[in-house]
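Predict the assembly for these two chains.
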Amino acid sequence: MQTMSFSQAAKEGKGLEDAIQDAVATVYPAIVRIHVVAENGSGGRMKKSRGSGSGVIISPKGYVVTNHHVAGKATRLTCRLHDGEELEAILVGTDALTDLSVLRLQLDNRVGENPLPTAEFGDSDEVKVGDVVLAMGSPAGLSQSVTRGIASNLTMISTQRDSFRLDGENVGMLVRWIGHDAVIFPGNSGGPLVNLTGEIIGINEVGIGSLGGAIPGNLARSVANQLIEHGKVSRSWSGIEAQPLLEKDRHKQGVLVAGVIEESPAQEAGLLPGDIIQRFDGEKVNAIIPEDLPLFNRIALSIPVGKTVDIHGLRSGKKISWELTTEAREAARMPERELKNWGITARNFSKLSALEARRPDSSGIQVHSVRPGSAADRAKPSLRPGDVITNVDREEVANLGELLAKTKKIIEGQEEAVPVLVAFDRGLAKLLTVVEVGPEKERDTPPQAWKPWLGVATQVLTRELSAVLDVTGLKGVRIIQVYPDTPAEKAAFEAGDVLLKMDGQIIQAKREEDAEVFGNMIREYKIGSKVVFSILRDGKPMEKTAQLERRPTPASELEEYEDRDFEFKVRELSFANRVNLRLEKKARGLMVENVDSAGWAALAGLRQGDVILKVDGEPIDRVEAFRVKMESIAKNRSARVTFFVKRRIHTLFIEFEPNWEKP
Amino acid sequence: MRSSIKLAFAVGIFAIAGSCLLAAKKTSQLQATAKRFVSDGNATVVWVSAVVRVDVSVAGRSYPSQEQKLETLGTVVDKDGLVVVSNSMIDPSASIRKQIRSPGANVNVEFQEVRILLDDGSEIPCRLSLKDPDLDIACVQPLDRKGKELTTAAIRPVNLRSKVNPEILDEVLILGKLGRTLYRQPTVKVARISSIIEKPRKYYVLSQAIPGAPVFDARGRLLGIAVYKIAGGMPTSMITLPSEDVLDIALQAQQRAKNKK
């Protein structure tokens, strides 16, 4: 679609509103709403979370540009197009340093036949303060939205150094945002900032109060092109840490060297803190204020990897030059992965993270987080975040791949955890520990002896209650519920009966804290004992004899199953469950005992207390059958699994969408 | 008249002499039984050690896990090495709850290692197979019932099926074993039955007791096992649980262990 700039529109007699309408019509259909399932390491697990953001289609092949903080850690991506169609997408590449990601829509599954609407990048260098800009996106609750504002500032930076970090990368190192006052809603991240010509001049990234910030379109286009072509952005690393000139040197031109990282190309070239760089690879550089630094960084980082560059500058006021050969810049941090058999999340070292951790090289695996109670946590000494695993079972391990392979070898065919000697570094200390790697031993909780029961729920006859009930001075309990098919029901006890004595012994309960007295007294008897109860019914004293029976198996001793893929636990229905949920004696189902936060089950919406009735349409009533079913699902790596559950008076279907790729 | 006085005096003398003889006989019987127990190497009472991991959370806040090592006396109750102990001596839950004094506290005790310590220094790995916190008794089951350690171990189980009807003030023997500092040597104590409680179930109250230790009559027949009376979830005074109740628990432990397999 042909569009025109506002100046053109003005010349042709069109008003601002028409220009806006044209720009909206051009870009609006290319906006997508991105639904993300992301994983982040925490507490020894990869915790799953849902999120959403905006993106814009930039190519008929289905490439979508969005923010790294929206999609960079996604394990599942779904995009909703302007016409409502939903398509799955894959992450093509991501760049934390500029907070940009590129996705590719899975167009093979597309239902609609219309050509894919796309938007084009304009030249963000042409944007002037005061230009009308349109912020577009798909914020939460809205399918698509557009807000209008003006460009307020073209060199907006983070006011505090290092205040905006993503995966260890300082986003402000390269990005100077286009500041604007078009309203940014939550969920607008990744959406385009558009000029009146209908071109992308920025990718919206931040909204602070009434001020929005967009990554300049030229930078976004360059990064997106590299991600599409190579899957990553190639950058050079010199090891120079730059800062603006000090006040005393403001009359000079150049960039102050604040620091030189050890063993970096800059150190090898002989640069020292305090040097002033004036030309870098032939380009004049200058940084008087912080807003100038991203320009220098862009020049330094965009040098081809391995190129030797000439640097000219000043040292103690005298001219000096250096020759520096750049190296490939690796990510500030490598992504973390979960090692379930260890109970940790861990990551490899990048060159930069190894330097930050003062490691001699990038070999070793850095522990990122530890799950409480896991094998790593139970080891003595236990592994802690920051520890670096260097040797497992007397073999060196240099990276996660080697550790995973070694772990697989150790646990193959084992039914129980295997004690493994692990060497790790904690700072400068070199420690040894033994980690029991492998299937976690089920907790061997001793069962409790069978106990008698009457089959009632009671409340304490408090002083206040006894006064109101005209039984002042008496101690005991009041029956509040008689359970079905119990000794109490057989002995015709009723709710409201006040129990005062058992075999002549006073039930010493008069305060709320005495709630357990009655139960304790009952449990002292033998199963089958006949007990004479002195009671009050409607104020009249009487005696009732009940023969105590064996208490139903408590919930804690019922068979249970923990699914470690979906991260939840179920068990058989207990007597109390059936009573409280008003279930028939023969009602089927399994009780959801626990759902780990941020696991696949939690993400799907399963809740503690749900009763699972069916799995993929198959009725479920025994733990063993459920275990077989879930193991089959794991073996087949089913893309989707549907539970039919009962939740209080409701029933509902819950769909799981696990990510089987990562172990 | 005079002759009748003489007769009465003579009868009295005989009666006193008879009762003295009877008492002496009982004492000698008690002593003989005690000596027999000691000379048998006291293979009925064993030390049991446990390593437990304690996790405490109060109002949703978890505290760092702690490990505790506990040792207590237990009584061997069958030929496969089943040992009964006082539950409160091996499970610190109740004492920790008492220390915390917070109604919302959650105390979780996990038994990481349970072992029977034999006189020859060997240790038999076990598991806690059943607990009865209300009666303060717990069963410790060797992991491998046919294991080498057990077949070579000189254990002498008590007879839980013995029928005894003791009376107030009867003298009884409590069989124990001294601690590590005293080389785990056998020890025997004499006590008297000071009370017999019938309801809600039968308990014997003795003048002294050792938790987890067996209590015998003078003839060496088992009366029961000494445990704590639990009130409000806490151990209070010591009582002796009759052998028939211990038998119920032991049989249940064996049956449930069998079902689990």
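Residues 217-230 of chain A form the longest helix (14 residues). The radius of gyration of chain A is 34 Å.
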